[in-house]
Amino acid sequence: MKDFEMENKTVETESIPAVILENLTILPGAVIHFDLHKEEAISSLEHAMAEGGRVFLITKRKQESEAAHPEKKLYAIGTVAVIKQITKLPDHVVRILVEGLYRGKLIGLQKKENRYFCADLLKMTDEGSGGLEAGAEIEAMLRQVKDSFRAYMAFHPKLGQNLAKRYDSITDPGRLADEMAMNMPITFEQKQQVLDACDLKERYEILCSILINEVEIAKIRSELVQKLKGRVDKNQKEYLLREQLRYIREELGEDGSLSDADQFEKTLSTLQATEEVKKKIAKEIGRFRNLTGNSSESSVERGYIETLLELPWDKASVDNESMKRAEEILNRDHYGLEKVKERILEFLAVRCLNQKGDSPILCLVGPPGTGKTSVARSVAEALNKKYVRICLGGVRDEAEIRGHRKTYVGAMPGRIITGLRQAGVKNPLMLLDEIDKVSNDYKGDTFSALLEVLDSEQNVRFRDHYVEIPVDLSEVLFIATANTTETIPRPLLDRMEIIEVNSYTQNEKFHIAKEHLLPRELKKNGLSKSMLSIKDSALKAVIAYYTREAGVRGLERKIGDICRKAAREILERREEGKEETQISVTASNLEKYLGKKKFTQEKADRHPKTGIVRGLAWTSVGGETLQIEVNKMPGKGDIDLTGQMGDVMKESAIIAMSYVRSISQEYGVDQKAFKECDFHIHIPEGAVPKDGPSAGITMATAIFSAVTGEKVRGDLAMTGEVTLRGRVLPIGGLKEKLLAAKMAGVTEVLVPFENKKDVEEISEEIREGLTITFVKSMKEVLEHALVNQGRK
């Protein structure tokens, strides 16, 4: 041992045998055993035992190359240790037990006798621990290190609680840091960092940093382990439950050998579809097979595959080709409706001749209760087609037609695809009910979505958002119903063939009631013909005095009222012990069952009056008569319009006033009358909105009558629009208007000349009893309407 001068200080140096370690660092205070197998290390060990049993243990760096100088390969700081025990093992391996004494700094390394290493080193002591003034700081360091180690031990319980108790009794921070680092399962590089730190503060910071880092790693590792354990446990539980379920099914004799994916593949093998569709479904089944059984994605995929397998890709029903049978069914179920029946039979004839003919899109337009929906059901029966009804009233979401995207739970196909799925064939009859009541909002334009469905050029490859695979809708027979075409956009209307289902006449209502409604209501109320008889006169009285509608729903309800009251009367007779006799309802005792009459046959006032003219109007529920009244009073030439008129009707009133002023001089009317008088034009029933271009001649006649004082015939009604020059323009809804005039007791109706072709198509039953006069100009209207005819 000799003295060595360093930084103006004299320190002790010594020369002792050295053992170079690989991937191992020994700290002072540590008692540890390890194996040596190199000849140089074993030789150094033998010399150390001969010279007092001390050896210098220094660690080799990992990144230095083999060609470097031996001293550059080693760390600068090592540990001087005393050898406690040596054990020789087979294959020239020596196991030694050593105890670390203190740190040593390598100054030089020599190889003696070309057999072992001898190191010159400086003995290093802990710095920064002297002085009582540092007591508080040392205590803080001790507490912080112990707290960090406890947090570390929470994730490494295998270290044992004995270490924590032993560390609580250590007051030397340097010794505490060395022991903690030696007992922790950290890398030899991290232990070397602690060994290199001779300063206590530096050693404290390094150890705390290692502890904090290890605690964070342990936290993350623990979370990962918990997640992985939960997933494994979940999968294991599912596997066990499935195996148990399979075993139970086998014990019960059920076929539990096939999984859902196997069942799907079995169904796919028998599916009637193209190869493109089958490949897509097979791909989805393969994807489903790799998903977890109870995940949300698995349930979405299962529903998607089931939908694809249930769709009738190439499955079709055989249409009936018997013209005679189809005609019999249509005539059996409906009275009248000749145009509708004729068009259906034409479609059937074309389909029989051309098997690949495009299915038309028929749209039945007419008032409520006229049998539009029941016609579609009868057509389905006549053609032997599956019947699917899709109600579009109030539909405002485009996804209702095209379907939802299948990227979320709860997605479903649109109503068209759902209808095909229910029908089970690709060529059903699909009824699009109330197509005029579809509405739009921020969720998309539903009418535009229907364009693809109803366009024969596009629906060959209709793409639903949910199904994604193109579906052929060209073989579907679409029949739409609507009360009016005014709310249907023109592009959609252009793709449909409009068939008008007009209002029923009283004779048609009578036959419908007798042949269809009465048998149905008797059956519904548990009655038979032997129990209740409703005479023809009673049915006609119900139609004339208790209902006033375009269809027959109200008539059906009235017949139902009669049946219910008759059922009650029959039961009361039974309870009283009276002999059961057939209840007969006639026109004379009808008030007993339905009460007082609600309508009168002669509704029109036949007395001529000034300023009052009867007009005719069309509504979505049939025709109506309108009394237009005009009053003339002193004033300043103002015009008042009341009766909730729409913009079109207001314009008609202004045009009528202008025309009357232009011809007033021809009839001897002073122009001052228009400046010194106010005119009030009113249409009764002000709560009901009124609009439409068909009241022009009626208003002009009423204004002219009020101005001239001429009376207008009370048995006459008129309809038509007027121009500024007095021409009479054609109108629509003529059948409903004539029916309304006939029911109101009108004997003559003025109709625009250009509507002559429409009158010729109206049945003789409606025209019977009515004098229909065609007019071209307003002067002709005045000649027929005014009582004093021929006056100019």
From TrEMBL:
Transmembrane segments: none annotated. GO terms for molecular function: serine-type endopeptidase activity. Keywords: ATP-binding, Cytoplasm, Hydrolase, Nucleotide-binding, Protease, Serine protease, Stress response. Residues 607-788 form the Lon proteolytic domain. It catalyses: Hydrolysis of proteins in presence of ATP. Residues 16-215 form the Lon N-terminal domain. Induction: By heat shock. The active site is at S694, K737. Its EC number is 3.4.21.53. It is found in: Cytoplasm. The keyword Lipid biosynthesis does not apply. Belongs to the peptidase S16 family. This is Lon protease. It comes from Suilimivivens aceti.
